[in-house]
C-alpha cells in the first residue's frame, strides 16, 4: 500500500502565499509523475501542476507564473509553492503520485488539504 500525506493548507488573504507538501510512503519502488489537483465547491477536479521524475513540469494556465511545483526524490515528496493567491484559488488541493512497485504501477491520491483565500 501507498500513503500520501498532504500538509500546508490554510486560510490566507489575497496576495499571500502558502506552501503545500505531500509525502509518499509505503510500497514504492519508484515514483514517476507527481501532481497537484484542486476541486472547488460545485466544480470538477482540475489539474494544477505536474512534475515528472526527470523534472519537467506543466501548469494550468490559471496558475502559471504564480505557482511552482518541485519534488525531492530522496524524500518521495512533492511541493507546491503558491504565491499571489487569489480568491478563485480557494479549493481542496489533492496530490497524486504515479507509483511503481515490483509488478504494478498505480496512481495514488492524498486525502486533500483545504486552501481558502479571502478577498
List key phrases describing it:
4-stranded antiparallel beta sheet, mainly beta, elongated, 7-stranded mixed beta sheet, 119 residues
Terminus-to-terminus distance: 40 Å
Indicate the low-confidence ranges by residue numbers: none
Q: Determine the structural class based on helices, strands and strand pairing.
A: mainly beta
The largest pleated sheet is described as:
7 strands, mixed
Question: Residue share in helices?
Answer: under 10%
**SSE order, as H and E?**
EEEEEEEEEEE
Percent range for β-strand residues: over 45%
Got a strand count?
Answer: 11
The Rg value, from CA coordinates, equals 14 Å
Q: What is the 3D shape?
A: elongated
Mean pLDDT, to the nearest integer, reads 96
Task: Tell me about this structure.
Strand 7 and strand 8 (77-82) form a beta hairpin. The N and C termini lie far apart (40 Å). The protein has strands at residues 2-7, 10-13, 18-26, 30-39, 46-51, 57-59, 67-72, 77-82, 91-100, 105-109, 113-118. It has 119 residues and is mainly β. Strands 2, 4, 5, 6, 9, 10 and 11 form a seven-stranded mixed beta sheet that branches. It has a four-stranded antiparallel beta sheet with strand order 1-3-8-7, with no helix packed on it. It is built from no helices and eleven strands.
Quickly describe the structure:
The chain is mainly beta and 119 residues long. 0% of the residues lie in helices and 60% in strands.
Topology, please?
Elements (H helix, E strand, L loop, with lengths): L1 E6 L2 E4 L4 E9 L3 E10 L6 E6 L5 E3 L7 E6 L4 E6 L8 E10 L4 E5 L3 E6 L1
Parallel strand pairs: 2-11
Antiparallel strand pairs: 1-3, 3-8, 4-5, 4-9, 5-6, 7-8, 9-10, 9-11
Amino acid at each position: 500500500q501507498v500513503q500520501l500525506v498532504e500538509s500546508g493548507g490554510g486560510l490566507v488573504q489575497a496576495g499571500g502565499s502558502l506552501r503545500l507538501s505531500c509525502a509518499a510512503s509505503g510500497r514504492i519502488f519508484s515514483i514517476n509523475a507527481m501532481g497537484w489537483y484542486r476541486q472547488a465547491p460545485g466544480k470538477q477536479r482540475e489539474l494544477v501542476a505536474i512534475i515528472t521524475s526527470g523534472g519537467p513540469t506543466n501548469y494550468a494556465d490559471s496558475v502559471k507564473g504564480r505557482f511552482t511545483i518541485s519534488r525531492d526524490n530522496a524524500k518521495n515528496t512533492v511541493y507546491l509553492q503558491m504565491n499571489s493567491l487569489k480568491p478563485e484559488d480557494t479549493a481542496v488541493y489533492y496530490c497524486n503520485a504515479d507509483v511503481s512497485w515490483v509488478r504494478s504501477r498505480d496512481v495514488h491520491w492524498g486525502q486533500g488539504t483545504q486552501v481558502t483565500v479571502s478577498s
